[in-house]
Amino acid sequence: MLAALALGPADFATPASSHSCTQELASWINAHGGRVHLGAATVAGLRGLVAQRSSAVGDVLLEVPLECVLSTAGDGAPLPAEPPPWTASLPWNVQLALSALERERDEHWRPFLQSWPAESPALPLLLEPEALSAAQDDAFEADADAACFWLHEQYLEACDAAEAAGLDAPAEPAFRRALQLVWSRCLRLRAGPHGTRRLLVPMVDLANHDGVAPAALFAFSAAGRRGACVRLYAARPLEKGDEVTITYGDHPNAHFAKYYGFVPRHNPHDTVSVALPQLLELSGAAPPSGACWVETSQRAAQLAARLDAYETSGLDDEEEDEDEDEEDEGDGEAEAVVRVAEVVAAARLLRDLRGSMLQLAVAGPSGAPARMRALQRPPPLYPHLEALPPEARCDPASSGGSKALGAGALQWSTILIRCQRTTLSLSAVWLFSGCVGKWLTRAGMMAPPDVK
Ligand SMILES: C[S@@+](CC[C@H](N)C(=O)[O-])C[C@H]1O[C@@H](n2cnc3c(N)ncnc32)[C@H](O)[C@@H]1O
């Protein structure tokens, strides 16, 4: 069943050879006043960036002048390559995709746009419903479905806008490819006087994701060789040939699958929402006599508060006494609460299983290390951070890259409970039947989970 969901690796083959293509790209950036100390390499089927020389923390690995960057429109000072005005009524990502498509005919942009993969990543929205169902996640399936419709609607909107501007509409396959590449390749960046923008930055968009210990940070800088630019800084000491990764942000696995077509092997920021009635059912607790587990928002709030207390301090005597008191009141709710808490304590197990499910869903049971390969985990990053230049340090409103390196970025709580009417949003809880997990373990696809 899961094998049916396997998505093939994206076709990153570039027209001539990936290598000559990125050499041309580097020459183009240099010719416009940039600096490139990086090359491209393909390891296990996945193209990425590598260091061309050894670097210390804070060294500039890459400097891309703004005239080589495609950007969204914004309120601040204009940037050289914003989307064409006729796209202004469309969402930012559609504008950026149309901007790239329009510039395909422009010789200036050829080295950049030619470095893009021939095909977009294999995203869940391209899957058939039966295949998607193997992910065992209703919300994920619905989201992929909605994305597919949304993309088609946006195409129709784009055609209308082009027609109104007296232009030819793009072909739908080219539009879809461009939009999917925008999803998987653009950065969000606070760009000084230009305000916060989404940018397509040549060469930076060849960096693969490492959310735990990225090798580099991206940031806007006003101090480039020819003025403002986007820079990549070394976030740890690098040797020649080391892979240069960045972080795409603190997203849950479903986000990576949806927009990037892969799921990180280690993701401390994974989250999933579980409906309270399902959680209660999973707890094995019997509902109050004659009722089913559809909670009022008030009861949901009480449960959330109790689970929170359980998570932070355990059920101490006082709380147990309280529980007993409530049990005396007679509707059996207190017992249910304790049992729900036990389920929540198994969140770690469920998270591990969930990660495996999504990885299998995206990569297939053969393990498909090409797209899911474990990235080398270098030593902890934080001791070196002080050496970074100020503009590359944490700015919570800025890029995912900077944000992920901020203090506390790795301090994630196992369980985050938010109560919203009848739904509890539980970080790192994955709901699926125990028999699937057992089946995976038996089939040797997954090591038995380590529950602490
Ligand atoms: C910004 S591009 C990175 C460069 C890309 N590998 C290329 O050759 O153009 C993002 C895409 O690279 C792939 N990718 C990035 N990081 C990855 C990772 N850690 N594991 C698997 N695939 C990854 C995914 O297909 C993703 O959609």
Automatic annotation (TrEMBL):
Cited CDD domains: SET_LSMT (cd10527)
Source domain of life: Eukaryota
Annotated transmembrane regions: none
Domain SET: residue ranges: 34-249
Biased composition (Acidic residues): 314-334
InterPro entries cross-referenced by the UniProt entry: SET_dom, SET_dom_sf, SETD3_SETD6_MTase
Region spans: Disordered: 311-334
A GO term, aspect molecular function: protein-lysine N-methyltransferase activity
Listed PROSITE patterns: SET
The name this protein goes by in its record: SET domain-containing protein
Gene3D superfamilies the UniProt entry points to: set domain protein methyltransferase, domain 1
Organism: Emiliania huxleyi (strain CCMP1516)
